[in-house]
Design a protein that fits this description.
Helices cover about 35% and strands about 20% of the residues. The protein is built from six helices and eight strands; from the N terminus they run E-H-E-H-E-E-H-E-H-E-E-H-E-H.
């Protein structure tokens, strides 16, 4: 199978949903004969010269406490410092995206603020709903997420596990990313 020339797929996750989304995107690209390995930003931020290679560069980043994870923020800072950055695909994973109209860059406050804060011009930006799984969270996370859910009309029962991720949308995003890719090399 040809390797996607210089395409990079990164994710930032706490509970694994962003990793699962990145893996689903990689699988979707593979169906288009494009191979890319998702890389966890917790293992380190890539060197600027690596980021500067042809793209697209794809980032799947979880939101926690109203902001994207610190490693995603550091990644976007490094990306923004490039003199000639490759095209960027920015996917924000958050529970707000479970609501209609909150899955776009303009409709999702977390995504919109991140784009503005880093002065980004992504080729593709979308918010993807994550997974709510109260039993997996620590005490503080459970309380904070429950409070946010109470404010936004979401489930507050601490036994709740809900898969909000629209996997068909993730597959569509993978196809849109494939359309952005340079021709593969052998």
């Amino acid at each position: 199978m040809p390797k996607v020339r210089d395409m990079q797929l990164f994710y930032a996750t706490r509970d694994g949903q962003s990793r699962r989304i990145a893996e689903r995107i990689a699988a979707g690209l593979a169906r288009r004969n494009l191979t890319v390995q998702p890389q966890n930003l917790a293992d380190g931020i890539p060197a600027p010269r690596t980021l500067a290679e042809e793209g697209p560069v794809v980032l799947v980043a979880a939101v926690r406490y109203g902001r994207h994870l610190k490693e995603a923020e550091r990644f976007l800072t490094a990306y923004g410092a490039l003199s000639a950055p490759p095209s960027l695909v920015l996917l924000s994973v958050n529970l707000t995206a479970r609501k209609p109209g909150k899955d776009t860059a303009s409709g999702n406050a977390y995504l919109r603020k991140t784009i503005n804060r880093h002065a980004l011009r992504p080729a593709l930006a979308a918010a993807i709903a994550g997974r709510l799984e109260y039993p997996r969270y620590g005490w503080l996370d459970r309380q904070v997420i429950r409070f946010i859910m109470m404010l936004t009309g979401g489930p507050t029962d601490l036994r709740t596990c809900v898969e909000y991720t629209p996997w068909d949308k993730v597959d569509e995003v993978a196809m849109r990313i494939a359309d952005l890719c340079p021709p593969p090399t052998s």
